[in-house]
Design brief:
Structural class: alpha/beta
Shape: globular
Largest sheet: 8 strands, mixed
Strand order of the largest sheet: 3-2-1-4-5-6-7-8
Strand content: 5-15%
Length: 305
């Protein structure tokens, strides 16, 4: 896997792709790479102005690209439901990429701590609501983008919404761990149901994107943002594990892709191992049920494994 990975992607002509958070960074680079291979790419973005700029960028980088913009605010279950209801065609690939990192404690309109709400619950609900459209595709795939931070995470079922105590990095790590538990539980359920859908995950290592923009301004956070800029690999390189997860013809359900360099912070995209606790089906199953209760999205036709 290298910087020419986009040329190793098979022809994607006619394949429909949705990428959340595609207005910049990893999502935008993923959109460009997939559009180059002929995919029909939908940029699912919260901000219409930024999404429109991203649409122009993809169109200019990939003349003749089939690309469109649809508004999706993952901090709003109403927006998630509206987006899913508006998608009426088969969906080949859903890339759950959007995220916020280490933000001040803010609640979504549904009352969720926003890192949990956007990074996990919004994507959980989106995937469930789009499942009928994914099932209409011949080889559907769902990619969830996690982070190295998942290794420091725990799922605090006693205070999942960080109501009692809020530590921004603890909440971020929890949300990224939740992405992986969701992937593994989705994989278990679709396999047990005899379905073709592949549920896989990826992380970008340490990448220089605008993910730090929502963290606020303090001297410590300013230093951290500078660290990402100085030591992070480019967003093009950071997108390679996502592209591997999204397009590898040899992928298996539950695969996790990331960089092969020191500490998985940078390098070529390869299969990597999540923290061992990610494979605990009891925690994953419990998180699934709690997520269903919180969002009202129950995957009724996808029973527990």
């Amino acid at each position: 896997m290298n910087s020419t990975h986009q040329h190793q992607i098979q022809d994607l002509e006619g394949r429909a792709v949705v990428i959340t958070g595609a207005n910049s960074g990893l999502g935008l680079q993923t959109a460009i790479a997939l559009a180059r291979r002929g995919a029909s790419v939908t940029l699912a973005c919260r901000n219409e102005a930024r999404g429109t700029e991203a649409l122009k960028t993809v169109s200019s980088r990939v003349p003749g690209a089939t690309v469109d913009l649809r508004i999706l605010d993952l901090s709003s279950l109403a927006s998630v439901r509206s987006f899913a209801a508006g998608w009426t065609a088969p969906l080949d690939l859903l890339i759950n990429n959007a995220g916020v990192m280490a933000t001040p404690r803010i609640l979504t309109e549904d009352g969720f701590e926003q890192q949990l709400g956007i990074n996990h619950l919004g994507h959980y609900a989106l995937t469930g609501l789009l499942l009928p459209r994914l099932r209409e595709a011949s080889a559907p795939r769902v990619v969830s983008v996690s982070s190295l931070a998942h290794k420091r995470g725990t799922i605090n079922f006693d205070d999942l919404n960080s109501s009692t105590r809020y530590r921004r990095w603890t909440a971020y790590s929890q949300s990224k761990l939740a992405n992986l538990y969701f992937t593994m539980e989705l994989d278990r359920r679709v396999r047990a149901n005899g379905e073709q859908l592949l549920a896989v995950a990826a992380h970008p290592g340490l990448s220089n994107t605008n993910l730090t923009a929502g963290m606020g301004t303090t001297p410590v956070l300013d230093v951290l943002g500078g660290f990402f800029k100085l030591f992070g690999q480019s967003d093009i390189a950071g997108a390679l594990p996502i592209l591997r997860a999204a397009t590898s013809p040899t992928a298996s359900g539950g695969d996790y892709s990331g960089p092969d360099g020191p500490g998985e912070t940078r390098g070529n995209a390869v299969l990597v191992a999540p923290a061992p606790r990610v494979l605990d089906p009891l925690v994953a199953g419990r998180l699934w049920e709690v997520s269903a209760a919180m969002t009202g999205v129950t995957f009724p036709d996808l029973p527990a494994a």
